[in-house]
Amino acid sequence: MKKTKVIIGLRVISISDGTQIGVVKDLVLNPQGKSLDFIIIDQPSDYFGAKVVSFTDILGIGEFAITVPHQGVIQDVAQNTEIQNLLKQDIRVIGTKVLTKKGQLIGEVKEIIIDEETGYIASCLFESEGQMQKIEAEKIITLGKELLIIEGESIPQDAVNSKFNDEPISQIENPDLLQNIAENEDGIGTEDFIEKVDAVEELGADFNLFEQRQLQYFISKKVEKDIILDNGDILRAGEYITPEMVTHIKTRSTLMEVTSHLQKN
């Protein structure tokens, strides 16, 4: 089993002449097949000018390199409609939110585990409430652009025995921007602003810990479309989300709508 971060950066070696023909720049996933279908070995600014190798042409994925039979397996994206369609879907999985079939938001995907013998996704690792959790591929219903939808009603019990040490999802990315919002847009001081941020965690038992952190994460972000909040107010497209706006998100349906339409940085 290989993590995607291990595969990216590997040399690609042609065994027919023993030369390096490229380096893995990115991976192309097939959400319907739950598989790794192509590796990108040359990535200009325009994806459709890239060079790729089909997983079916890969002989092996080792610690040092990926081996292929010869240089003739290299394909142009511009001449392959299959990979063009996959690239247009832009399914990355890592960074998407994890949603149960029952509608509970429980985490964020941090890594994908690939079976290097078959190319199929074996499992995904996601952070939930400070711990890394693993969800097996057979429990994954949908690999979406914004959401990974899984079987079950709550957090799986097979937690990986290690704390996730990256920055917490609730960390505010731009404190200076938040201070400007607090003082200039809401007319409140920074201390009052921080109190409102803290108040997000007291929205009630209906939201789990991850969902409360997700609400905090909204602060200082923007959405791509107008969204009606649960108190009837409208969160306008391109408008900074303030702590007060977050307190008007009372239902999971609104939480998910805001999540799905956050502007990308």
Radius of gyration: 21 Å
Work out the helicity level: 10-25%
Give the rounded overall mean pLDDT. 79
Are there runs of 5+ residues with pLDDT below 50, and where? 156-194
CA-CA gap between termini: 32 Å
Which class best fits the helix and strand makeup?
A: alpha+beta
Tell me the number of strands.
18
Number of helices: 7
The secondary-structure element order is EHEEEEEEEEHEEEEEEEHHHEEHH
Strand content: 25-35%
Morphology call: elongated
Q: Largest sheet, if any?
A: 8 strands, mixed
| Quaternary structure of the protein | single chain
How would you describe this protein?
It is a single chain. The chain is α+β, with helices and mostly antiparallel strands. Helix content is 22%, strand content 31%. Strands 1, 10, 11, 12, 13, 14, 15 and 16 form an eight-stranded mixed sheet that branches. It has a four-stranded mixed sheet with strand order 3-2-8-7, with no helix packed on it. Strand 12 and strand 13 form a beta hairpin. The longest helix has 11 residues, at 175-185. It is elongated and about 65 Å long.
Task: Write the topology of this structure.
Elements: E1 2-3, H1 4-7, E2 11-14, E3 19-23, E4 26-30, E5 35-42, E6 51-54, E7 60-61, E8 65-68, E9 75-76, H2 81-89, E10 97-100, E11 105-114, E12 121-128, E13 131-136, E14 140-143, E15 147-150, E16 159-163, H3 175-185, H4 190-199, H5 209-218, E17 227-228, E18 234-235, H6 243-246, H7 252-260
Parallel strand pairs: 2-8, 10-15
Antiparallel strand pairs: 1-11, 2-3, 4-5, 5-6, 6-9, 7-8, 10-11, 11-12, 12-13, 13-16, 14-15, 17-18
